[in-house]
Give the backbone structure.
Amino acid sequence: MDDPGALKLAKEAPRERTGVRARAVTTAPLAGQSITPWLVVVLVVVLFSGGLFGYDQGVISGALHGIKATFSLSALLVEVVTSWVTLGALLGALAAGELADQIGRKRTVLIAGALFTLGALVQALAPDTVVLVSGRLIIGAGVGVAAVAAPLYAAELAPTAVRGRFVSAYQLAITAGIFLAYLVDGWLSKGDAWRIMLGAAAVPGLLLFAVALVAPRSPRWLMTKQRRADAAAELRKIRPGVDAEPRLDAIDTVLREEGGRASWGEVFSREWRRPLMIGIGLAVFQQITGINAIIYYADQIFASAGFATQSAQTTVTTWAIGGVNVLATLIAIAFIDRLGRRRLLLSGLIGMGASLVVVGIAFRFIVPAAAGATAATGPSGAGIVTLLALVGFIICFAFSMGPVVWTVINEVFPGHIRGRAVAVATAVNWGSAFLVSQSFLTLIGAMGNSLTFWLFALFCGVAWIWIYYRVPETKGQSLEQIQQLWKVAS
Ligand code: BGC
């Protein structure tokens, strides 16, 4: 695709600048790019982290019913129990940035594993609401720490040619976690089973901790700590046969250029404003285009579209939203490193926007009385159109704004501030998710269904234009080469 971002790189990448010839890289031989056993270990870390993220985010809706029965919660406490995971995630993400840069990516993942396990157990055994809410905060912190550390770890350890796939595997695991949570909600939503639903996450939490214990360290992070010998040893272990020295030289050169000033001030400095804006912009657009309004409130959307019984709503939500989300993420895994990030983002946004416009139109034909009238016969034609359009939205999100946003956020920042900058973008993502999920029902009440979905569609349009002009293609370039883009472009 001849788009401005790609053209700019091709024209402006100066030949004399070390290793910045973006186009040449894609044709370079892929020595050392094969998947070795240690890379599989990295992948397992990434899959557990994403899976726990998705499960812990998704499981609460089914557990709430039983929790309310056990503790007779007030409306305010219901909201606290639901949303403090997000609060914990926000704080966890910010702390994880500092940790990832200071103590390293691998140890930060270990902390995430410990928090997941502890949080799950505290929730499962909670004798009262204070302990339960503390457990929610701890698990939230685990989600936030993992959300920063795992994709960062994946991006730094993956060979360039498959980096997009590695980070997309993280998204695949998130979607699988959400799907599993929907299924578990369907099976166990009665009585005290909520303790099992929340406590079950301790097992994968412990496994994540165990796998992270033996997982390799990031050579890139070791280089930021001037531990070249360790970095070389890890690199040779992870990718035997790779010529380590020139790769470490390239990392070293870039780190020297950056001057190693790893501070929060540096994250917000003029020099790195462009990648920071890209990271934050993508994080915001991923949320304000509506994904979590649909993930969290699918049951209620389907109810107002005429799916009258609880079991019809749960089945449609589980399979049409949860199942499709997992399957369609595989499209990204197949194409992200071949077609590139921009093509997936731009085409996905067109599909997301079009689907939302259709949902808005369909809701014009669904009046509450008609929805009630269809209770005996199932959803109306407009209800079926709503379902199909939402499936279309999920498919398009799953191959674009889901995985690609996390991939780009984890590859655009320079090494010495990568942890903190990724943390800022991730925290902004959680903040936006929180705002959207808190305001969705209010918006529906104030503007009606159609206008609310059209508002999300409008944001898809704005996101498309912004990405078209602002986000360059990063496929096939090493993390060091990507950093040079900001100098070329500024
Ligand atoms: C987003 C989550 C969302 C999930 C849905 C992720 O990329 O960050 O907020 O719930 O995708 O698949």
